[in-house]
Amino acid sequence: MKAWRLQKYNKDVGAAIDSLTLEDIPVPEPQDGNVLIKTACCSVNPVDWKLFSGAMDAMFPQVFPSTPGFDVAGVVEKVGPGVTDLAVGDRITCDLGGASSNKQGPSGAFAEYCIAPVDFCSKVGDIDFETVVGLPLAGITAFQGLFTGIHKQDLGHCKEGDKVLILGGAGGVGTFALQLASNAGCHVATTASPAKFDFVKGLGAKEIINYHDQDWGEVLAGQDYDLIFDCIGLMDDLKVRAPKVLKKGGKFISIANFDPSAAKATDDIEFAVFLTVSNRTDLDKMVQMMKDGKLKVVNDTVYPFAETQAALKQSMGGRTSGKVVIKL
Ligand SMILES: NC(=O)c1ccc[n+]([C@@H]2O[C@H](COP(=O)([O-])OP(=O)(O)OC[C@H]3O[C@@H](n4cnc5c(N)ncnc54)[C@H](OP(=O)(O)O)[C@@H]3O)[C@@H](O)[C@H]2O)c1
């Protein structure tokens, strides 16, 4: 099969992307509890290229040569021992959950076939692959941050009437967070560039702050927000702006501020940062919302498989609206 491969870490991430090679390698064999997926589409998440520098090795150790990519959609080609709830031919999507959780060695999504734990895979019915493939990692992240939690971390419990601010509503995760919070009956505000105002409004934002020219800490000061969901990761957002906007005991939940000092940045608000955990239960719920017409995936650009490096470079630019997809 053809697979994109990285040979080694490189602090210069752009150069690491340039160094990716498309190689012919054996199709992997699914072991206990895993399935082999024939990839139809994959989608890009910032973590794909962030891993290339080596800075995240402690969380997601790479075995080289490694195949990047977390999000995949395609057809089950083969099932491993013990798999009873998926069958050959099932149309599925999943977030592969990181190389560290795959005991069969590196097997990323940017390849003609990949291996996935069955517990991470959701059947997608007749939703087209190009659309659904943007959902898993970004959607699960928004869902866990807003409504549930992971491991022992208690995260958001958004409910009708809550005031929720989403920092970075136009991005991959933000587009899901806007829709999920809005569907739950929350009053949703977000930060975005003026060119994206209509875009985020269409996804449920009731109040939009132009982060280039306005300080959201001033615009929303004293408005007693229940929750801020942070997809950007700026320390000043947590330390300086959030205390002005959140109600007493309000929560600041980040997916992007992993600075160890963040936990102690302020006494006045509850801070949590988390790494999403792939799982079928959360993904199933959102696939069902898509089937019911209550959740959509917005694709910014769809690249052919041969242009995977360009897809990664676009994501690295940080200006995408919704998802960047790769089609095989
Ligand atoms: N912890 C986890 O489990 C987890 C999971 C997923 C993602 N993440 C992290 O979360 C972050 C967001 O991921 P993503 O997939 O949503 O990224 P993304 O799709 O690349 O986000 C791009 C979007 O961010 C907007 N943006 C950039 N700077 C902004 C700012 N200062 N204020 C408001 N909007 C801004 C851009 O809008 P403009 O063009 O208008 O600037 C663009 O629409 C990344 O750092 C990613 O690594 C963490």
UniProtKB/TrEMBL annotation:
Signal peptide range in chain numbering: none
Lineage: Eukaryota, Sar, Stramenopiles, Ochrophyta, Bacillariophyta
PROSITE patterns the record matches: QOR_ZETA_CRYSTAL (PS01162)
Pfam families: ADH_N, ADH_zinc_N_2
Domain Enoyl reductase (ER): 15-326
Protein name as catalogued: Enoyl reductase (ER) domain-containing protein
UniProt xrefs under Gene3D superfamilies: Medium-chain alcohol dehydrogenases, catalytic domain (3.90.180.10), NAD(P)-binding Rossmann-like Domain (3.40.50.720)
CDD domains listed in its UniProt record: MDR_like_2
GO molecular function ontology, one term from the record: zinc ion binding
Organism the protein comes from: Cylindrotheca closterium
